[in-house]
Predict the 3D structure of the following.
Amino acid sequence: QVQLVESGGGLVQAGVSLRLSCAASGRTISSTATGWFRQAPGKEREFVAAISWSGGNTAYADSVKGRVTISRDNVKNTVYLQMNSLKPEDTAVYYCAADRRIGSRLSWEINEYDYWGQGTQVTVSS
């Protein structure tokens, strides 16, 4: 079993940057694909970014492309989401998710991920 804990969220003004972290425990996630998703009030959870187990491949939602970078440190068993030029529409709870299959390819599909964190709130004021 894998436990994921997100951190780094907060209340910020538009235009600033935040770096979210997702620390895994219980089992390594260094061999599995990992993703970030977000859910705004009244909306469905949506894909933000994903990274392959090696870090060699990444994918981003069109809404964040160019402003967001996903990365991972497999020694620390941690995945990061660097978000720049934040906008009010980025306000949401951000969730980290990991696939349980070793060597899995990255995916933007929610149902491809088996383990989820509790989320961290990001609020961007205008």
DSSP finds no helices and eleven strands in the chain. The two ends are 40 Å apart (CA to CA).
